[in-house]
Write a structure and sequence with these properties.
CATH architecture of the largest domain: Roll
Shape: globular
Radius of gyration: 15 Å
Number of strands: 9
Low-confidence stretches: none
Mean pLDDT: 95
Strand content: 35-45%
Largest sheet: 5 strands, mixed
CATH topology of the largest domain: 2,3-Dihydroxybiphenyl 1,2-Dioxygenase, domain 1
Order of helices and strands: EHEEEEEHEEE
Number of helices: 2
Structural class: alpha+beta
Length: 127
C-alpha cells in the first residue's frame, strides 16, 4: 500500500501552482475544471510516486490556520542535503516567506526548517 496523493484547498490556485513549481520543482498537469461544481484542480508531481492535488471551489471555507490543531499540519519535502535545506530556506526568506523554524537538527534526527507559504500553510523542508 502507498499514499497516492494528498489534497489541499487553496484560495489562489494559480499562485499555489507557481509556488510549488518554483520552489519545489513540481511538475503540473494541465488542470481540471468542472464548471457545474465551480471546481478547479491541478495534480503536482515531485519525482516520487505521491502527488499533491491543489484545489479551489467557489463555496470553500477559509478557516483560520492553527499550527497546534489536530489533523494534517504540514507538508514535508526532502531536498536531498543539509546545504539544500539551508539554500532553499534562505531563498524563501529573501522572497518574503516567514521562516517559523530555522534550519536545525531536531531531537529525532531530522535536519529541517519550516516556513509558511503565502496562505499560511506550514511547509517543512528536510534533507
Amino acid at each position: 500500500m502507498k499514499i497516492e496523493h494528498v489534497a489541499m484547498y487553496v484560495n489562489d490556485l494559480e499562485k499555489a501552482r507557481e509556488f510549488f513549481v518554483k520552489y519545489f520543482g513540481a511538475k503540473s498537469n494541465d488542470g481540471y475544471h468542472n464548471p457545474k461544481k465551480q471546481f478547479r484542480s491541478y495534480f503536482l508531481s515531485f519525482g516520487g510516486e505521491a502527488r499533491l492535488e491543489i484545489m479551489n471551489k467557489a463555496d470553500q471555507i477559509d478557516s483560520e490556520k492553527n499550527l497546534a490543531a489536530t489533523g494534517f499540519i504540514h507538508l514535508a519535502f526532502s531536498v536531498g542535503s543539509k546545504e539544500k535545506v539551508d539554500d532553499l530556506t534562505a531563498q524563501l526568506k529573501r522572497d518574503g516567506y516567514e521562516v517559523i523554524s530555522e534550519p536545525r537538527t531536531t531531537g529525532d534526527g531530522y535536519y529541517e526548517s519550516c516556513i509558511l507559504d503565502f496562505e499560511g500553510n506550514q511547509i517543512e523542508i528536510t534533507e
